[in-house]
Amino acid sequence: MLPMRAESLKGHLDGLLLACLEDGPRHGYAVIEALRDATGGQLDLPTGTVYPALHRLEAAGLVLGRWSVVTGRRRRTYQLTAKGRRALIGKRADWRQFSAVVGAALEGRPCPDPT
Amino acid sequence: MPRPDMIDAYLAQLAARLPEPIVAELADGLHETYEYHRHRGLGAEDAALASVAEFGEPGTVLAACVAASPARGAARSLLFAGPVVGLAWAVVLLSRHAWDWPVALGARIGFGAAVLTGVVLLAAAAFGARYRRAGRSGAAACLIVLAVDMSMLGYVASAGILTNWPVLLAAALSTTRIGFTLSRLPQVLACC
Fold it and tell me: What's the ipTM?
């Protein structure tokens, strides 16, 4: 299977990054590795574009970024805020609904009841 | 672990276009990527090559930074809200016969010019491709939006016409926009 391209992620990257931080704080590259592991390496995403996305989530109050010194080098750690945790729950619900509706249309299945 | 020149050159390209805190964050990420490839057993030059390739073209990273910029986000929100607030004030100006208000012609022209300049600057911040320029345009636009809203609120308050619903609605929208703009201004200024 071909790797998925960044454009396919439009609108979903924020949710994926929040999910990667759900289990606790991570350094930037650990977030990228978690994303890679969770998707079986199928996301073809330039890692340099993940940091601006983390920065945007931080500006929105969904993620808290902190500098710390590890083995003599400053490193940035990211963790979910309470607002970020609530946003993740919302994004999961939105995704379930979206994938159910689009899946129904693409595969000719009955559309799930909106209620 | 000393960094190869290739990584420094890559970061220098980003530093020429982005504010220091963002470059520091990207440098940390690139360094981590480099260390990851070193731990995989690659030599210094190969690890630098692999990490720069994995990080993405500088243009791609810059575009992602611009897209995620707080200045762009704030400018787009203000552009979206602008017609709503503008329409509310237009109703006030028409219903209260603003052409009869005792306001000097110069002040009227200055106010109109400020509104137009604000819209142009917001559009530049919302759709521009350069991070710092978008930040400067966004910051200037935020200040103009604040000045425009405060002028209108100050005028209707001093004229004693905060009495009927169109004026109250427009004043409430302007007050909300002032609060939003003030809350975003520090992040927008950090983009300059």
Answer: 0.79
